[in-house]
Write a structure and sequence with these properties.
alpha/beta; 43% helix; 8-stranded parallel sheet; 301 residues; globular; TIM Barrel
Length: 301
């Protein structure tokens, strides 16, 4: 098998990783952690979300975070926005890229966004249009593409239809999310073979969760389809409120270790990545669930 020479890892820990943490993470710790991630070699960091604080209290300080982080040249600092109001706040902080989001499942979309899929399209179209007028690139997130906690399996055709609408709006990249971590390698292979008929793979990213321990296996299958962009969170932070016992996002440190062992470049310094992981682990006062951190923690005892 001929693997890609280089893979881009988009660090989503400061947003997708922290948003489900019950204990409030102090602003200064968020800023220090993001600065450590910047020094570790990431080219893309999703630092927060401009969603109303009542929905995600943990990220209520998104504006302050954006104003205080040390922005490193060559790093894209991105944030999630739900609507035009969120976009206006993000633009005020000089965000580099904005991300819009919706689900491939009608039920999940209604519970997560409080709108039907069809009613979500006009809202996102406005955000994408206005973001482009502000000179910002736009990323799309499509959740539950491999399965929904309410509807079960989601048809690949439905995923393709919604994805095409998002690309028609003008998004620059689409991240396909296994939101509750139900995907398996055979399913991923089958879905990607179908999506090749409709979607531009050079503008796709994969967003796997490791609920059942299959995230890295699903990455390998995606690499075979020459997809070279992956979302992940340091230490495997995160999880899904709809999947009991979900263990969080694909761990950045596990992913980087695997890719480097395979001779695939990421541009990330593993030593500095470890430093960033240990820092947020200390802030949260609990061991991070990634395999790499389990090894590191044992070595430090």
């Amino acid at each position: 098998m001929q693997w890609p020479e280089k893979v881009t890892i988009k660090e989503v820990g400061p947003r997708d990783g922290l948003q489900n943490e019950s204990g409030e993470v102090p602003l200064e710790d968020k800023v220090s952690w993001i600065d450590l991630l910047s020094e570790a070699g990431f080219s893309y960091i999703e630092f927060s979300s401009f969603v109303h604080p009542k929905w995600i209290p943990q990220l209520k300080d998104s504006r302050a975070v954006a104003e205080r982080i040390k922005r490193k040249r060559g790093v894209t600092y991105a944030a999630l926005v739900p609507n035009r109001r969120g976009l206006e706040a993000a633009v005020d902080t000089q965000v580099d890229e904005v991300s819009v989001f919706m689900s491939a499942s009608e039920t999940h979309n209604k519970k997560n966004i409080n709108k039907s899929i069809e009613d979500t399209f006009p809202v996102l179209e406005e955000v994408v249009r206005e973001a482009k007028l502000e000179g910002k690139s736009v990323r799309g997130y499509l959740s539950t593409v491999f399965g929904c906690p309410y509807e079960g399996n989601i048809s690949t055709e439905n995923v393709a239809r919604i994805s095409e609408r998002l690309f028609e709006m003008g998004i620059n990249e689409l991240s396909l999310g296994d939101t509750i971590g139900v995907a398996n390698p055979e399913q991923v292979d089958r879905a990607l073979n179908k999506w090749k008929q409709w979607l531009p793979f050079d503008h796709l990213a994969m967003h796997f969760h490791n609920t059942r321990g299959m995230a890295l296996a699903n990455v390998l299958v995606s690499l075979q389809h020459n997809i070279t962009t992956y979302d992940s969170a340091v230490g495997g932070l995160g999880g899904c409120p709809y999947a009991k016992g979900a263990s969080g996002n694909l761990a950045t440190d596990d992913l980087v270790h695997m890719l480097h062992q395979m001779g695939i470049e990421t541009g990330i310094d593993e030593r500095k990545l470890e430093e960033a992981a240990l820092y947020i682990q200390q802030v949260l006062n609990k061991p991070l669930p990634s395999h790499q951190m389990q090894v590191i923690n044992k070595e430090r005892v």
